[in-house]
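Please fill in the sequence for the structure shown.

STRUCTURE ENCODING:
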């Protein structure tokens, strides 16, 4: 069952509603580019830049008392849930204007960076086609267009699928049909994103979820796949969890007033949304709902999960009138994910005892009769699994690296015993990322994507009978890219408690000195059990091609080293995340990868919390920091259950209504620990419509930094007024944001040529 609820180490956009922006899902602030063969030191500032004064937010005293402790927040007024307060909007616009002025002297350089980044992209391209029934489905990008077209072609050959199949595109091929053109749909919107695109089992209809604000509140439209004609009225105010239950029924999820997915609904095509049947209402505000379909398409699974616990309901698509059935009831500390094949449910179960998970199977008619297929192991974490008619593929982690193992299964209807004799797929890079892709349940072909910091994203079809692997698609990188020029390494830093923390490193072997003089960017996240597996980013080449080193700190709070790695970086052990990152930075300096004067750091969302914490703890260690949509007002946010995500995340950060958690969280909360000291150059970003991290958190962080810091280094705040947590939606718009960020980094390092 692929991409089940809960935080995962696999590289998909997100699972559940997390403050989650991992490196693999968003443009990593790691591809800092400059347009000259050799860095040019010293920058000439224009008079406008040198005379610009930063905005000063007004101070309105706001006291908050807890356990006899009084916190004063002079910038609490910046929170406006309606996003319409004139004073708040005026302040945000003033910050944006100041940022524009400060960066105006490198605008030409920023434009040059943008041209270089965009120049590496093959703008007219298609994704690897996916077989669904009698069609190939794929996405097409067009020259100069921001968004994709969703397309399909009829499969003309009737034979079984093979790893050697290629979708015909010549004059004799079936005609390409554009089902939906996002470029047309996006017209008139500053933001446009499709969160789900689901084809009905008979291939006649498509349901897609559309967000036009960036607030992740979707509207679902159903259209005829051939002519685009709307089918029924749209479903409004829903999540992107949408699945077909047969050809005439849709299952979807809605949210409560704090954007917690709490109700799952059954919708019959042609009926009004107001008459839809609520299958389940999760009333516990610590739990949220998610929805998955089995690979067999015969069952839908509804998960109800907190950060520690997950139970499962299921619905038989052929017996929808029976409603949801309980697969395994809720037991605190037990996390369940499930799928279906033949007359068995397959279950991944994690508990406090079996913290790295075990894989089980049970008959459909006796769910209490469990067979252990793969037992719990101390050194191997079961991450996910994928079912086929004759095989099961298990995604695991061992020694911090992804591992993919294929096992044969007995014929459907036969007894299932413990899995044995599996074969593991080999990968060539020392550090890498591998993710499951959509595969046909009835075939013997496993599809997966592979990437490393020197290997562009590659889609493979793997024949599970013969072991034959065929490359189906590799991202085209224009500009003469040659992977053999680059080196990836894995190093280990030792924390003060003796814990070894891995670091993934990339550099170009003929350009670095490795004597402490090289500039370096260190990325970190470290929350939600998310693994930041090393992957490829084409724009990063402009960085490493000019002598930069790029590194990822795989710190506690993530899931790279198994469940305990996560447990040791959350709640009352959260500070391990921050000290691990500092340890990695010190290791890189001590081992001559860089110096303090050239060490840059970045992180987004919960990784932005990391940035804020380490900046307060060790501001002397870094030259530049970028904090994207940072979660920095930890105590205030987690004390307010009316804010989206708060109640569901008490198991991640702690509940500050309890004294022990209150004072621990206050001891690292970035807003609460700003003090009068020198800070490095800092860029902070936000999205006005962000439902995960309210824009007011980074706004307050910047306002208080301006008040307290004692240095003259740059402090810039850029708030996108028409976007959410994932920033702008167009593919080129995102590149423009990258270019801006890279220009800031290099301006701060003194590596930008003076404007002519």
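FILLED IN BY: designer on duty
SEQUENCE:
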């Amino acid at each position: 069952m692929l991409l089940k609820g809960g935080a995962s180490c696999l590289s998909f956009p997100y699972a559940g509603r997390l403050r989650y922006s991992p490196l693999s899902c968003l443009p990593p602030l790691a591809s800092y580019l400059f347009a000259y063969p050799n860095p040019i030191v010293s920058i000439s500032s224009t008079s406008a830049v040198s005379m610009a004064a930063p905005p000063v937010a007004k101070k309105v005293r706001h006291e908050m008392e807890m356990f006899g402790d009084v916190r004063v927040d002079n910038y609490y007024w910046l929170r406006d849930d309606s996003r319409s307060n004139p004073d708040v909007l005026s302040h945000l616009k003033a910050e944006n204007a100041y940022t524009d002025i400060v960066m105006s002297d490198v605008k030409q350089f920023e434009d040059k960076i943008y041209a270089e980044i965009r120049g590496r992209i093959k703008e007219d391209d298609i994704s690897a086609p996916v077989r669904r029934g009698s069609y190939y489905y794929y996405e097409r990008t067009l020259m100069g267009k921001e968004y994709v077209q969703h397309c399909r072609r009829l499969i003309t050959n009737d034979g079984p699928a093979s790893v050697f199949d290629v979708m015909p595109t010549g004059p004799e091929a079936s005609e390409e049909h554009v089902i939906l053109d996002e470029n047309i749909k996006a017209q008139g919107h500053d933001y446009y994103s499709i969160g789900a695109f689901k084809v009905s089992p008979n291939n006649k209809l498509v349901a897609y979820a559309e967000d036009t604000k960036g607030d992740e509140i979707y509207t679902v439209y159903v259209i005829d796949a051939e002519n685009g004609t709307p089918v029924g009225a749209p479903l409004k105010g829903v999540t992107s969890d949408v699945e077909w239950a047969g050809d005439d029924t849709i299952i979807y999820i809605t949210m409560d007033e704090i954007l917690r997915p709490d109700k799952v609904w059954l919708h019959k095509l042609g009926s009004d949304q107001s008459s839809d049947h609520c299958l389940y209402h999760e009333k516990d505000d610590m739990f949220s709902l998610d929805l998955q379909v089995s690979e067999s398409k015969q069952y839908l699974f509804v998960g109800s999960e907190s950060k520690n616990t997950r139970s499962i309901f299921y619905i038989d698509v052929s017996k929808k009138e029976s409603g949801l059935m309980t697969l395994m009831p809720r037991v605190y500390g037990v996390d369940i994910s499930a799928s279906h094949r033949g007359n068995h449910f397959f279950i991944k179960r994690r508990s406090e005892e079996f913290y790295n998970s075990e894989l089980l199977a049970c008959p459909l008619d006796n769910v209490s009769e469990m067979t252990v297929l793969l037992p719990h192991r101390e050194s191997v974490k079961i991450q996910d699994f994928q079912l086929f008619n004759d095989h099961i593929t298990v995604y695991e982690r061992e020694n911090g690296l992804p591992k993919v193992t294929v096992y044969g299964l007995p014929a459907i209807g036969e007894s299932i015993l413990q899995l044995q004799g599996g074969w593991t797929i080999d990968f060539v890079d020392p550090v890498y990322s591998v993710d499951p892709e959509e595969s046909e349940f009835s075939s013997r072909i496993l599809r997966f994507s592979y990437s490393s910091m020197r290997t562009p994203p590659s889609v493979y079809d793997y024949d599970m009978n013969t072991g034959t692997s065929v490359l189906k698609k590799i991202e085209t990188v224009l500009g003469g890219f040659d992977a053999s020029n680059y080196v990836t390494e894995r190093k280990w830093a030792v924390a003060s408690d003796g814990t070894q923390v891995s670091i993934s490193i990339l550099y170009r072997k003929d350009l670095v000195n490795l004597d402490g003089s090289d500039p370096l960017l260190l990325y970190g996240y470290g929350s939600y059990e998310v693994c930041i597996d090393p992957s490829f980013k084409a724009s990063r080449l402009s960085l490493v091609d000019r002598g930069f080193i790029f590194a990822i700190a795989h710190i506690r709070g993530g899931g790279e080293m198994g469940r305990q790695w996560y447990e040791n970086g959350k709640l009352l052990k959260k500070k391990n995340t921050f000290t691990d990152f500092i340890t990695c930075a010190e290791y890189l300096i001590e081992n001559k990868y860089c110096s303090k004067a050239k060490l840059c750091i970045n992180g987004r969302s919960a990784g932005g919390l990391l940035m804020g914490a380490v900046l307060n703890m060790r501001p002397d260690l870094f030259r530049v920091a970028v904090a994207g949509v940072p979660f920095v007002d930890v105590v205030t946010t987690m004390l307010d259950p009316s804010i989206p995500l708060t109640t569901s995340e008490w198991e991640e950060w702690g509940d500050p209504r309890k004294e022990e958690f209150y004072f621990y969280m206050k001891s690292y909360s970035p807003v609460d620990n700003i003090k009068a000291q020198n800070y490095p150059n800092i860029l902070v970003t936000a999205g006005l419509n962000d439902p995960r991290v309210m824009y007011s958190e980074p706004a307050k962080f910047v306002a208080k930094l301006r008040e307290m810091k004692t240095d003259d280094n740059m402090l810039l705040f850029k708030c996108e007024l028409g976007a959410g947590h994932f920033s702008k939606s167009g593919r080129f718009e995102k590149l423009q944001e990258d270019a801006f960020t890279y220009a800031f980094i290099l301006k701060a390092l003194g590596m930008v040529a003076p404007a002519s």
